[in-house]
Amino acid sequence: MILALEYHRSPARFLAARGLTATRAGGKMSGMIAGNVSPMRLVNRQAPELPGEGWTRVTPRLSGICGSDLGLLTGRSSPYLSPMTSMPFVPGHEIVGETQDDVPGVPKGSRVVIDPVLSCAARGTAECRWCASGQQSRCDHITAGRISAGLQTGFCADTGGGWSRQFVAHARQLHVVPDSLPDDRAVLAEPLACAVHSVRRVKVASGSTAVIIGAGTVGLLTLLALRQLTDVGAVYVVAKHGHQQEKAKALGATAIIEPGKAVRALRRVTTARMHSPERGGDFLLGGVDVAFECTGGAGGLDTALRLVQAGGTVVVSGMPGGNVDLTPLWYRELQLVGAYASGADGADFADAIRLAESAPLDGYVGTTYPLARWREALTHAADAGRLGTVKVAFAPAR
Amino acid sequence: MSIRREVKLLRHGRDWRGRSTVPKSAQPHELEHEEREFPTAWARTRTAVRARAGLRRTLLKPVVWSQTTPVVEGTEYLDGVRGPVVFVANHTSHLDTPLILGSLPERFADRVAVGAASDYFFDVRWRATLTAIFFNAFPVERYGSRRLRSLALDLVDEGWSLLLYPEGTRSEDGWMNPFKLGASALCVTKGIPCVPIALRGSYAAMPRGRNWPQPGKPRVTVRYGRPLVPEEGEDVRAFRVRMAKAVSQLAAEEDLGWYGALRAAADDRLEVPGGARSVRPGALAREEPTAERAGESKAGKNGKTGAGAGEQVAHWRRIWSSTEPLGEKRRKVWRD
Amino acid sequence: MSRPGFVLDVDERTPPLLMHQGEGFRLERLPLGAKVIYPPDSLPGIRNVDAAIKHALLNPHGTEPLPELLTPGMRLTIVFDDLSLPLPPMQTPDVRQRIIEQVLEMAAAKGVDDVELIAGNALHRRMTPAELRRTVGDRVFQAFFPDHLKNHDAEDHDNLLHMGKTKHGEDVEINRRAAESDLIVYVNITLTAMSGGAKSVSVGLASYKSLKHHHNVHTLRHSNSFNDPPNSAMHHSYERMKGLIDEHVKVFTIETTLNNETFPSSMGFLNKREWEWNVRDQASYVAVKRANELLPAKTRRRIWQSTAAPYGVTGVHAGLQSEVHPITLSNVHRQQLTEVNGQSDVAIYGLPYICPYNVNSVMNPILVMSLGLGYFFNLYKNKPIVRQGGVAIFYHPVPNEFHPVHHPSYIDFFEEILTESTDPVLLETKYEEQFATDPWYIQLYRNSYAYHGVHPFYMWYWGAHALEHLGDVIFVGGNRKTTARMGFRSATTLADALEMAKDTVGSSPSITYQHAPPLTLADVR
What we know:
heterotrimer; B: alpha/beta; seven-stranded mixed β-sheet; 36% helix; globular; C: alpha/beta; six-stranded mixed β-sheet; transferase (chain B); Plipid/glycerol_acylTrfase (chain B)
C-alpha cells in the first residue's frame, strides 16, 4: 500500500472546476479550485505492479507540479487529450527518483530522472514509425499495448505517477543523474528537455530576434535553451513578475517587458509599425523572427501571433487552451509550430541534464511539500509567479 | 480632503465675513479700496414702495409719534404742488427723516427719496440695505473725494421728489450750518420747486450720540414752508440764499410766531447761515441779549460782517440753547 | 493702473495660499518666512484690438507698411503659432484670427492670389481641422482649408529647403513653400519671454535636422534661462539661423502679447491674491474644488481642457523681427516680471493642468517633468530662484497616463528608456537618433496626430539645466512609481517634502514659492 494523490473520474467535480475557472474571479482563484474542487484525493492504494520485463519500481525524491497538471485539475485542458488518459491515475511527470529494481544499464538504487512519454518500447508493441526514428514523443501507439492508455507517466492508470510514494517506469524512460546534480535541479530536467526540444523544433537563424512570452518554468528554461543551444540575437522576455525579470536577466534576456507593454516595446526595438484594430490587441507590421508561447493560455498565443513579422515562426510550448484569432497566421504567412515533450531519441534529455548542471538554476524549486499538504501545494503552484516561485514540487518521501 | 477640513483651512486667518488680514509685506501693494456704489434701484420698485409704506405706517411713524410729541404745520402749502420737488431741511438729529416722512402727505411720502451720506449710511451692506428700505435713501457723496455721478438728477427725471439736507451733515450742536450748493443747483438746473422745512426741538429730543429719543415725549415741530420756485435766470447761489432764508424764517416761527417771523424776514433781521458761520435756528440778528440767548446776540453785536467770520460763541452755550425745551417749560404729566 | 508684482513674506497674517496641482488645486500653509513671488496684476487689455492690429500693420517697425509689401502675383505665406500658444487657449476670436483676417483683407485688396497658411508646429503634433478652425476662424478656414491651410510637415523632405549652414555649422532647413515665398507674414503670440522673435520662423518651420542644433542638452544647459534670450545659448542659435533665413526671404513679423487673465470668471479666485478673496471667491473655491474632486476623471479632464482664457491683448507690434521683438519682450516683462532678492534653498512650484504639449490631450509624466524642471524652473532672469544644489518641490499628481494617439513615443521613452537612465546626455547619445528616425513615429507624426518621435527627448533636455542645478526634486502628491522612474521623489504633504529635503538643505531652509499661473518671471538679483 502506498500513499498517492489520485485523479479520479467525477463529472460533477470536473464540470464545477471547469465552470468556476472560466469565470473572472474563478480564474484568479484557480489554485484554490485545483486544491478543493477538482477530482483529486489523497488515498492509500495498491502500489502499481510491474507490467513486465524492463520495468522498475521508482520511489520519487522530488516530483514537480507542471502547468499542464494544473490545467487538468482546473478543467482548462482540452478534452482532446481525454482518450490519451486512463482513470484513475496519479499525476506527476517531472520526477527525480530512485530505482528499486535492476534493469539493463540501470542498477537498482540509481538516481534517475524520467522521460515520461510512454511510447512503443514501454508498451511492448511493435515500434511505430516515430519510435523507430527516435521521435518517441510522436508515438502513435500511445493508447495501445500492455499498459492502459496514457500519453505520459502521470496520465496512465497502470504506471502510477510522481505524486505518490512509488510508481513504475520502463528502462527506456530512465536517465541516470550524475551525483553532482542535486535533486532540486534534477527535477527540472524534464521541463528543460521539453524546452530544448522546442528550441530545436525551429531553425533559429544566427542573430535573429526572439520573444518568449511568459517567464514561468517553461519560459525561463526556453530562454536558457535558446541562449545555450542557438546563436540567437536579441531575446525579449515578456514577464509579469519581478523575480521572473531578474531570473530572465540572469539567463541572458536582452530586455524584459511587462505583458501590457509588449507590443509597443517590441515595436520600438524592431522599428516596426504598430497598429490598433477596432477590437482586439495591437499588432505589428514588422516584428520579431520567432516567438515562443510559454504561458499555455490563449492570450499568450494571440500576442505571439501579433508580434511576429511576416514569414516568422510561433512555437507553442505551453499546453494551449482557448480560442485564438488566427488571422495573422494567414495574413502574415506565419509558421505555427507545436513542441511537445522531448525527442531526438533521448539527446534532448541528455542536453537538459548537462544544462541543468551548469546553468544558474538555484532557487528555481522554491518550496517542496509532503503529499499530505497537497491542497496547499496546488494553491501555491497555481500562484507561483506571484509568490516568487518558479517551480513547486512534492517531496513524497517526507 | 473632507469638506470640513477644506473649509477650516480656507477659514484660517479670516474673519467671520471671510476677509483675510493682509500680510505685512503685502500692505504696500494693497489695492485702493475700490468702492462700489451700493445699488439702490431695487428700493424704488413698486414692491419696495409698498413695503416701505407699510413699514412707515406700522412701525416708523407709530414709534416716533409715541416717543415724541410732533407738531406739524404748513402741510397745506403742499396742496396742489406737483412733483417732483426738492425738500430741504435743517438737520440736527436722526429723528429728522422719520419726522418728515411721517408728516408728509402720503402722495409725497411714497414718492420721496432721501439723500444719505454714502460714507456713513452706505458704508456697510446691512446698514445700506436698512436705510434704503426704510427711507428710500440714495447715496450722496458729501466730501467730493470721489467723482461719483450723483443719482439725484436721474431720480428727478424719473419723477422722484428728493429730501435733502443742504448742510451736508447733522449739526454738532443743533445750530444751522451753511448750506452747500447741491440742492440749490439741482432745483435751478431742473427748474423744480424747493419746499423748505424747518425742524425745531429734534436736537433736544435726540441729539448726536443718542440712538433713542429722550424720555418724556419731547416736543418737536416740523414746519413746511411755501414752495420756492427758481426764477428765470436765477443764480444758483442766489437761490441758495433764498432757501436758507426760508428755512431760517420757518425756524424762527417757533419763537416769533408766523407773522413775527414774516416781519423779521421782511426786515432782514434773521440770522442766516453762510460762509463758515453757523447760527441758531430762528435767531435774529439784532435781538436783545437774554439769559439764554446771549450767544447769538453777541455774535450779532460783534458786527462781524457776513461770510467767513467765525462764531465766537462757546460750545456749551450753543448746546445749551439748542436743548432748550420747546413750548411748555415743564413736562406735561397728562396728555392733551 | 495695475499693481506691480511683488514678493510676499509669509507671516502670521498670511492666509493659506493657493497651489495648482495638476487638474486641481489646493490651499497650502507655507512655513513662516517663506517668500512668495506674485506676478503683476493683469494689465488692462487693448479695448479695440482690431484697430490696434490695423495700426500695427500700417505703421510697422523697420519696414514699409504691409500693403506696400503686397503685390499682385506674389507668393505670400502666412505662418502662425500653433496649438501650444497661448495656454490655456484663448477665448475666441483668437488674436491670430483677427490678425490673419486683416492681413488677408489687405492681400485681397492688393490682388494677391497665391496665399498659403501654415501652422508653425515644427515637431509638434498636427493641429486637427477643428483646432485650426478655432485658431484662424471660420472665414479663413472655409476659404483655405484643406489645400492652402496646412500644418508644417517636418518630415516631408520634398517640401523642405536646406538653406545652408550658419557660421557655427548649424543646418538651416525650413519649410520650402515658406522659404521660396516673396513674403512670409508670421503671426505670433508671445506668452513667455522664450517665444517669438528669432524662434518663430527658425523653429516653427524647421526640421529635425535643423532643430537638433539647439534642442540639445549642451545648449539647454547653457541657456540660463531660456526665458532670458540674452543669456540663452538656445536663442543665440535661433538668432544665427534667423540671420541666414533673412538672407533668403523677407519676413514680416506680427507679435502680440497677452495679459494675465488666465482663468475665466467662474474661477476668478485663481487670478486673485488670496487675502483679497471675498466671500464669493471663497465659496467658489470650495464649490469648484469639491465639484472637481467629485467629477469622474474623464469629465474632469474634458472640463479643464475646454476652459478658455479671457486674455486681453496688451500689445500688437509688426515689422522687422529684430525691431519688433524688443518691444514685445518689454510688454511681456511689464506683465510678468517681479524682482526677487536672492536665491533660496528650496523652491516650490504648483504645476497646473496644462503645458504647451497637452492641449486637448493628457499631461503625461514626461510633460510634467518638462513643465516643472523645464518651464517653471526657467521662469527666471539672472539666477534661478533656488540656489545651486537646492531642492525643488513641485505639486503635481504625476499620474502614469499617456495619450496613445498624441504621445506614442513618450510611452516608449518612459517605459523603456527611462528605466535605463535618466541622464540627459546618455539618453541623447544613445537613443535620440533611434527615436528621431523611427519610421513608425514619423508615420504617426505625418499622418496621425502624434508628436514627433524625438519630442520626448526634447522634453527631457528642457529639464537638463534644472537636473544639473538642483540637489533634489520632490513631488508633493506625486505618484510614487512614476516619480521614481524619472529619478525624483514623492511626498504626501509639504511637511514630508521639507523633511525629505533636510538631507540636502538642512532643517531651516529658506523657501521661495513661485505663485503661478498666472505666469511670473522672477528677476532674481
